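Sequence of RES domain-containing protein (Rhodococcoides kroppenstedtii).
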Amino acid sequence: MLPPPPSIVTLRDAGILAGERRAWQPTDVLWRVHRTTGSHVLPWNGLRTFGPILRFDHHPRPRDEHPDYGIWYGASSPRGALAEAFQSARVIDRHYGDPYLTGVRCLRPLRLLDVSGIDGGAWATRVGGNHALDSAAHGRTQHWARNIHRAHADLDGLMYRGRFAGSVCIALVERVEDAFPVRPELSLPLTHPALAGPIDTAGRQLGYVIT
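Predicted 3D structure, token representation.
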């Protein structure tokens, strides 16, 4: 079970050790699956200011529009992005909402806190928590995200292990807006023939149905 987070002051005093911080380099692509039609659609580089909703949303309560807070979720691989985007029904729907797969190379290194020990650090344990940050109830992990965001003003976001693909995922906050390029590295609809093979492979590996 994941305990409540330490106070903002306690987290700030604990600091972040070298092995707990990750610099996501501009040579590394971030992948995102996003709808392009329907309600509440954001552009590929748009940060969601309405929240909190998902795991590491750091928006204040209550759930509402918070213009000063934005969140953007990505993955280190296309399979990871597909796994997270279609986790609810475990169906990769290539048509509803006209979803796109977009790859992004940021303009500068991203300053990330590794909350899952992916690179060997033990930040979560050291500050009094544990690696259930990857899987605990969203209300609890959002509380952690709020305190981390306010304790460490130099962070662009969090690096964690996706629950469904087991690969690296990233939650970026509004401080990263200056790091997005004008154009993505790649952006294709999931119905594009070039994605048929990768999507079929991902669906088979994940056990997801493809429609």
